[in-house]
Amino acid sequence: DQQVKQNSPSLSVQEGRISILNCDYTNSMFDYFLWYKKYPAEGPTFLISISSIKDKNEDGRFTVFLNKSAKHLSLHIVPSQPGDSAVYFCAAWAYNQGGKLIFGQGTELSVKP
Amino acid sequence: NAGVTQTPKFQVLKTGQSMTLQCAQDMNHEYMSWYRQDPGMGLRLIHYSVGAGITDQGEVPNGYNVSRSTTEDFPLRLLSAAPSQTSVYFCASSYSSWSSYEQYFGPGTRLTVT
């Protein structure tokens, strides 16, 4: 049973436009939601997080939105740059589940010049 | 700081062989974990540790053993390799289980089992 799902394996966007990556979850007990970014042949790196008590968190070009009633979160990148091309993993975390991170399948973003 | 280091970067094993994937961190982090990444599956937790001497199973622990004798090191042992264990393995660490939502990952080990 996949608790965190990213239904789009890939996304292609023109440079300068908005990229929107989506994620759905099933467990309403998660405390934090996160996005990790991964370049080929490297480990994932933490990008941005949002607490379950908030509905928006912004960091520069990156904004994460959380809709708890729909159990849905999204990552907006504005404006998109070619260096943003990577695989983006959505993840969820609950302290009372041993502090384990539960990852989605990932979405490969390609930003074309 | 070197951060999280993993060795080897690549490894090819025959079915039935055993090996240990090494992981070390120099950030004095309490929490360490092992994941495997497979196409279409994301990252799945194998084992984790909330401190030296304490380990627990993740989502896919079968066929793997871990131990945590020091804060710095968290090796992953494959007891008898199987083709289903062909994957990319990532080690990660975070300051504590309270903040384990933000983890620092190593560069990964690509393992092929023939």
What does this structure look like?
The complex is a heterodimer of chains A (113) and B (114). Chain A has 113 residues and is mostly beta strands. Chain A has strands at residues 4-5, 10-14, 19-25, 32-38, 45-51, 56-59, 62-67, 72-77, 86-94, 100-103, 107-112. The radius of gyration of chain A is 13 Å and the shape is globular. The mean pLDDT of chain A is 95. Chain B is an all-beta fold. Helix content of chain B is 0%, strand content 51%. Chain B has no helices and eleven strands. In chain B, strands 2, 4, 5, 6, 9, 10 and 11 form a seven-stranded mixed sheet that branches. A four-stranded antiparallel sheet of chain B has the order 1-3-8-7, with no helix packed on it. In chain B, a hairpin with a 2-residue loop joins strand 5 and strand 6 (54-57). Chain B is globular. The interface between A and B is medium-sized, with 26 and 27 residues.
CA radius of gyration of chain B is 13 Å
Number of helices of chain A: 0
Binned strand content of chain A: over 45%
Mean pLDDT of chain A: 95
Helix percent of chain B reads under 10%
Question: Percent of residues of chain A in helical segments?
Answer: under 10%
* Count of β-strands of chain B: 11
List keywords for this structure.
heterodimer; A: 113 residues; mainly beta; 6-stranded mixed beta sheet; 5-stranded antiparallel beta sheet; 0% helix; B: mainly beta; 7-stranded mixed beta sheet; 4-stranded antiparallel beta sheet; globular
